[in-house]
Structure formats: structure tokens, C-alpha cells
């Protein structure tokens, strides 16, 4: 049986085995997908052992996405842009690392939620690995403006500088979170890519910036702190990142198996389990 795994620490909470089991059932694939708890100081050893035992592919979650980028033999373009790997596959014996997070986010926003990005004013909160992993696919959707705001302004500036050549006609801008009130103008879509939600916190920013906007939290959960905050502040619509989780998994499954599975039934099942 073909073997796949999700590698993380912690990893017991991961929904990936259930998601890939549903994809396998849909497509008639015979595979085993499990969780692998890697030591914090030895991602390379854990990953090497898995592939040496006959593993065909791996997903990578926190805190190992940058470790994986250093461990693979080749970085595909999305992973090279982000310097973060969430999917590993084999090609003629070489370990290839890619990143499906951005594809997953865009598919959830546009296909599942109906939030078109083309010509929109987008505010991306955060400048770490989660934000860098989605910058390329967001810019490919040709927003009118993409503004990156981070607690540390220099990191936000470094991030937009890395993607300047991919901006096309989009206006790229950056600031600290504290400077946002001075930016002027509103935003159509606000995406939270900070780690604040992992601790049930909200980025420190003015409530007025989300009034009338569509607000998306890349953290998933029944009702995240950011979703609650945005709803109370007057956002037009809110969503957590459950759909992104399933969509990025579907893209990884397609890379491994050559077929893109149906995501909406899986999203609906997971959403029902949160109720």
C-alpha cells in the first residue's frame, strides 16, 4: 500500500489523515496516510526514515516548513518564493518540495466563498511563513492593491520586496500594524496570516479597517478570535481557514496521485463536526 504522512510537532490534532482518507475513497486509491511526530531538533532524521521505508509523499506542518525547504533536493517555484515547504514528493529519486497553501487559500476564497480577488484591495496581516506562502498566488489573481501589515514593519517591507517582480499592475505596499490608521482608504478583503489566532488573540489593529470588508482567518476552528472580532466590528462576511486546509490538501493529493478530488463534501463534513 502506498504510504503518505503529515510531519509536525505537535501533530496529533491534524485533520489531514481524515481528509486524505476521504480523497482516497472518492478516487479509489489504495493508500495509508498517517501522522508522524518529529523531534523538534531532527526533522531531517524523521523525514529521511519515512522515505527510506518506502514513503511516497509527505505533508509538512508547523514548525517544520522551513526545515523541509532546507532538506529537500529541489524547491518548486511556490516553495522557492515562500522558502517554506508543505508538500514533498519524489521525482526520479529526487525529493521535491512545493507549497500548496496559496493555491488552497485562493480556491477557498474564490471558488467556495465567491470572494473574487481580481481588482480588489487586499490587506494581508502578517509577514511570516504563512503570509509568504500565499503572496504569489494572491498576486496571480491580479488584485488592485495588496498591502502587507506586520507588527514589525521591516519584515512586511522585506516580504513585498521579495515579490515585487510578481506584482504586475497591483500596487504593493507595507506598514506596521500600528501605522494602518494612517494609510487611508479601505480594503475589500482582509486576510489574517498572523500567529495570533493560535493563541486565541487578534492582531492589534483598528476595528474601522474591517467595516464592510470580507475577513478571512487562515487559522481554522469553529469560531476563531479573529472571526468573532471582525464580525463584531462590522465585517460584511467572515470565514475561518477550514476550506483552505482542505483545498491545499486536495492540491497535494493531485500532485501525488494525478487526480484532483472533490473538496466540498469534505469541507461540509468537517464543518458539521465543528458545530
Tags for this entry?
6-stranded mixed β-sheet; 2 domains; 10 helices; globular; Rossmann fold; alpha/beta; 275 residues
User: Structurally, how many domains make up the residues?
Assistant: 2
What is the oligomer described by this structure? single chain
Helix content: 25-40%
Which class of the largest domain in CATH terms? Alpha Beta
Protein described:
The chain is an alpha/beta fold. Helix content is 38%, strand content 21%. The chain contains 10 helices and 12 strands. Helix 1 packs across helix 9 (242-257). The radius of gyration is 18 Å and the shape is globular. The mean pLDDT is 94.
Strand-helix topology:
Layout: E1 2-8, H1 16-27, E2 31-37, H2 43-52, E3 57-60, H3 65-71, E4 74-75, H4 77-82, E5 87-91, E6 94-98, H5 101-112, E7 121-125, H6 129-140, E8 145-150, H7 153-162, E9 171-176, E10 189-192, E11 214-217, H8 225-233, E12 237-239, H9 242-257, H10 264-274
How would you summarize this macromolecular structure in one to three sentences?
By secondary structure, the chain is of the alpha/beta class. It folds into 2 domains: 2-99 and 243-274, Rossmann fold, CATH 3.40.50.10860; 114-240, Rossmann fold, CATH 3.40.50. It is built from 10 helices and 12 strands.
